[in-house]
## 1
Amino acid sequence: MSAFTFRTTPCIRAEAGVSAKLGPEIAAQFGRSILIVTDKGLVAAGLLAPFIASLEKAGVKVAVFDEVVADPPACIVEAAKAHALDHQVEAIIGFGGGSSLDVAKLVALLVGGGEALEDLYGVDQAKGNRLPLILIPTTAGTGSEVTPISIITVGEGEKKGVVTQQLIPDWAVLDAELTLGLPAEVTAATGVDAMVHAIEAYSSKSLNNNPISKGLAKGALELLGANIVAAVRDGSNLQVRSNMLLGSLIAGQAFANSPVAAVHALAYPIGGLYHVPHGLSNALVLPHVMAFNAAVCDEAYGKLAPLVFPDLRLVAPDRRTAQFVARMADLCSELGLKTQLRQVGIERSDLPHLASEAMKQTRLLVNNPRPVDEVAALAIYKAAW
């Protein structure tokens, strides 16, 4: 067995409705002054109110920063940091989708460590500690509640990451009731995002690809594959929603330790430049990156295929990979997602610029099982167009 390191969130709480009764425990363990980082949509939908009521009943002074937007720019992080400093909070809680969780992670690190955001981009650049941190996802996709990664937008649309173990929170809270109102399109896109995490973690060329990540990736794909269609068709099914949340978290644990690769690298420019939701960006390029990787991933994809599509167990191993790629494309279409770059406003003439921008994602491209240069990236984008 090769040497590896595996880290994850030390405490995971999973229970439908649990967020509305955590006040006393949070007050006892995390302090009496807390900032919640979220977005206006969740506040307007009333999802935050029971959680805040529980905190306040336990004597916690709650400040709320609700300015988070999709693909959050650096200025949003700085504004949330200023809000935390103004209220002299003792802990940070991220409540929402991946964008809110990523901003919360950075605020906890910036306030606790006193470093500048621009000094943190890249891998293991943080020197200081963070404030105590709790993350409560309201979508089943990013797995941010168990990863050491935060992604934000800088400049004219470039995605940059902060990767450091200080970003792993103290608690991850899975409350499936918070996901019951998710629209079908969001459920589909975030669910595919989680599946991408598992597929890429399993096949990653990272030197830290390890048996724990591989096992988690397989378990995540079984859960997600068995539940994603049902979650999109009937979003009120609490058990299905719980399974999706758990699958997302497990996939997050897998890729937090065996990092993702070219699907994400090619998806980031789509999201950053064209404001396409991250999960959909991944879905748009997933089958085409898988087809590109098939030449070197036949064994890996052949093992994953029947976990998502059990009937593929009956297919000869030498034919499974091709069918897995095709079936993943069909699944995205079945879930109602757009499947072509042209459908999200990208012109064919834009593709060379996308390929050039994707080359900036060296942190991710190095993990791809097959090398991706600019020529290959352009070919993948053309196939996806």
Note: Residues 65 and 80 are 6 Å apart (CA to CA).
## 2
Amino acid sequence: MELHWIWDWVGYAASIVVAISLTMADIKKLRWWNLLGAALFVLYGWAIAAYPVMLVNAFIVIIDAYYLVKIYRHEAEEES
């Protein structure tokens, strides 16, 4: 298998994971799945030199991580 086919499959996997994330009713699950999909798109964009794809998805990873930290902090505050 040639290397470019591997990256094609990473792109397909990223698309599927992002699509799955959009079916989540639980915002925490949505953020985790979306973060994973965006991270895969970062790798994919880097591998095929599609820097706009890489950059926008890196931004999405940061946004998802920010909100996950916020969610977990809020949950920790409620428990104490």
Note: The two ends are 53 Å apart (CA to CA).
